[in-house]
Amino acid sequence: MEINFIGHASIFVKTQDCQILMDPVLWDPHQEGLFDICPQREVIHENIPEFDLLIISHQHLDHFHIRSLAYLPKTVDVLIPEDKLIEDCLRQLGYSHIYPLKDFNKVKFGATSLLTTRSENRVPEYGVIFADASGVFWNQVDTIVSLNTIRFIKSRYEKINFLLAMWQPMLEMNYQMNMSLNFPDSIYSKILQTISTIQPQAVAPGSNGFRCIGGSAWLNKILFPVTTERFCHDVKNACPEIGNNVFPLYPGDVLTFDGGEFSHLKGKCPFVHKISDNREDLDFSPVRVGNEMIDNNPDNYHLDEMKEAICKEISVNLPKFITKNRNVLFIEHCRWQVIYQLEIVFPDGSKIWNFDFSQTEIQAQEGRNPLANLFTYMTASSLYGIFQGLKGWDYANLGGYYRGFQKLYIPTPQGITKPDEQERISEPLALKFPYREVLKRILQNEIAQWSHENNNRAKPQEPRTLMMQMGNTLVKLAR
User: Structure pTM?
Assistant: First the structure.
């Protein structure tokens, strides 16, 4: 079997004797002009092969794209859920061979068989299983899969060779509805548990490969809590029996399999080309929604001196401090396999470092890490002020010059484990520059500054009665 990845939820499947197009979105932008496929791709429309079946999984506009459906041949057989809206739109476009399907309906096409799989999210929608002599492929699409559904599938198919999994615990409306922007660990745990229960031979992240554009682009910081790389990493830990059969599929990629043999052919689709990899646009950063962090250097530190001091502190001194205290201050960082990403915002741009606590030798690596799970953003001048003993952590935090969040967990076959709510993992910079020590330096500087000025107003010492401690009471005797 061969699966050509067009982008997001759009795939072209070649079985032993059948060619199938599913959820075609062939132009960008889509979803009423809100979304682009990400990574960015080009579809060469005239090169799309002829196909025998067209499948629509559900009515959402990132799966049911009218412009694409208007372009495609209308004589093809179309499989849809029992949704009159979809059917009416297809008939208006000129399609006539339309077949609404229920949960667990079977379709036979020569030696190829299809089975619709139930979703607990009753849009209505379905996933689809494709089976031929080469094996079994389950496209989960956006469906929520119950244990009973998995049991039913396993009673029909001894093995799922390849699962295109629902994988992204999206926070679509959380900001707009004043809901939590914390990492949705319970939802993500269920996603990994579902995959572990299905026990496929191979997995790829499926339907979720788009980004918001234009006026809605700010949502990219909060919609997608998991990177593709992190999902693939987590599946390998949650399902160790899968081994290396976890494939990040991007537009233009092809996956083929025959039994238990898999080939990931990057960029080999003849009708889709990946243009650029702009997935950094989707990096989850809920503390930066609405207001970018800006360093206007209010104390007018010398920019070059500040840069040199900060780069040395982060690249040289901080790794030495971590190494020295690895088995004392950083026990929990190592236990929870922290990958710490630090971004310092300078007046003329920003610089990113990351530290991987799962490594034997922890170094400062420049650039973002898509597996990162502990994040700090800080202005350069506030950090430099802490170095100099001129500013403290209250200045950075209360002034909005510091922001941070974490999404710490360890995936297992039973779901994910995470630190207790009270067990927040400390910021490495805060361990190197402890709050009380920084505060002490600030107070000493202020004492030096203000006591000299006020000494000129000091009054001569006069005899006085001392206070005495009597039990739990302080007593000052009257004169």
Answer: 0.92
